[in-house]
Structure formats: structure tokens, C-alpha cells
Amino acid sequence: MLIEVKNASHIYRQEQGYKALDNINLTISDHEFIGLVGHTGSGKSTLVQLFNGLIKPTEGQVIVDGIDITKDKVNLKEIRQKIGLVFQYPEHQLFEETIFNDVAFGPRNLALSEEEIYERVKEALDLVGLDFEYFKNRSPFNLSGGQQRKVAIAGVLAMKPEVLILDEPSAGLDPRGREQLIELLDYLHHQQGVTIILISHRMEEVARLSTRVLVMNQGRLVLDGPPEEVFSQVERLREIDLDLPEITEILWRLKEKGINVRTNIFTIPEAVNEIATELRRLKPC
Questions:
Q1: With a cut of 50, which residues of the chain have pLDDT below it?
Q2: pLDDT number for residue 276
């Protein structure tokens, strides 16, 4: 297993007994694409910060590539090279005078050669759709919000992480920006074999991209499975006030009205075809 969490709990305010995480047990394997969902305050962001040692659990263990990173004297720098974390609104963390230097900041801390740093920056900017020659010497502060988001993500990609964690990466992006981000994540997962953990409140993104969905509620992991399995738990999701993907919601409502459509569909073309097929079947000859 790439990441293993054993009986992990985390208390932010010891004196008040506020548990952000409550006895989490979880394993994550290579090449998974995990969608992590839950309401604000459910423990999602706290959980992913355990994975690269940004915080340590109050109780329990976190094991990365066989190393218990909750122990003293663990080289967390090496762990953070393997597990890249893109915070929500990462563009707020830009600080260098040029885009090249901002993206190069992480690789320079790895003591790489200037040639290797150059190649990594170029590759990362190409991946996020920013032309290297055009953007490398520009200030990141003169870009649009969407372009700044891309630069920030490129800075993490330049570290070549084995695991990429993104916390609400599409927040504030327009539809075109969201679609470009989805295409990038799909490419990284399928073409480069990166393990991805996506925190998102956009259930459509989670259903479309994920191979596995984790649902958090009040610091606990309450559902864990493939998208078609998790999003079939309609009553359970409604109990904790989580939405279904819009397409899934439509299909469930049709099913409740007696139209026997499949509900484990997460793309518009598939849904249209499913509904049309069923309506043709029901049409009197």
C-alpha cells in the first residue's frame, strides 16, 4: 500500500475535545484516483494533511511507502517530494518575481542541476497549458486568476510527486478553466500514472474522474467505494446533506417514477442514450 492510516484521530483543541478526525482506517494504493467529499468541517483537509506530515495525528499511525511518518526523526522532506499538496486557492502562495522562478522553487530545493530544473519547469508549464517561452519571464501577479492557478499547480507538478492531492482545485474557475483542469487530472492519472486525491464539492467532477470515492462526515469515514456504489447510497447521502451528481439525481428521479433507467451513469451522452433507449422501449407500437 502507498499510504496507510491506522486508527488515526486528530484533536485541534485539546481542552475542548474537538475531534477533527475520529478513528480513521484507510489504505490507498498506487494509481488510484480518489474523490474525497463531505461538508465543510467534515475532516477532509485535515485528513490529507496527515498524508505528507503537515500535521501529525493525536492518535494512530500514518505509513507512507512502509515508513511510519508519525515517528520522530522521519525525513519529511522526502515524503513531501512524493506527496504533493495543492491547497485551495494555491495562487495566493505565489511569491517569486517570474513564473519560471516560482515553478522552479521546489526543484531548486532538491539540489537538482540547473539543466534538470529548466526541463522540469518547462514540462510542468506545458502540462498546465502555459506556453513556456511566452510565460517564463512574466510576473505571476500580472496573470488572470485561472492562469495563476495553473502556475501554482505547475509548481507542485515540477516536483514530480507520486501522489497529487488537490483541495477544491476548481473553486472560482470558469467552465472552460474547470474543463481544462479535468483534462489535466485525467491525463496525469491515465498517462503518467500519478495517484490523485481530489477534494471537491462538485459531485459531477468526482463521479466523472474517480475510481474510488471517500465520504467524510463529522470526522469519520462513512462511505468508501467505487462511484457507482457510493452514489447508489442515496438515502445515506441525503441523511448527511450531500448532493448526488446532477445526472445521477435526474436518473434516480426518473427511476422513482417507474422509468427503469440505470443510475450508475455519470456522463451526459451516456445518460441521454440511456433515457432515449428506455423511452423507445416504453413507446407503444
A1: none
A2: 87
Least Cα distance to 32 among 164, 143, 216 occurs for 164
Residue-level pLDDT at 285 = 55
Contact by Cβ (8 Å): 9, 60: yes
Q: What is the pLDDT of residues 192-216, one digit of tens each?
A: 999 999 999 999 899 989 999 999 9
Burial class (CB in 10 A: 0-12, 13-18, 19+), 167: buried
What topology does CATH give the domain 3-224? Rossmann fold (3.40.50)
- Concatenate the DSSP letters of all residues of 116-145 into one string: HHHHHHHHHHHHTT--HHHHTTS-GGGS-H
DSSP SS3 for 244: coil
The tens digit of pLDDT for each residue in 253-274 reads 888 888 888 888 787 888 888 8
Q: Is the dihedral of CA 89, 94, 100, 101 positive or negative?
A: negative
Residue type, 236: R
Write the CA distances from 63 to 31, 241, 275, integer angstroms: 17, 32, 46
List the domain boundaries for the chain.
Answer: 3-224
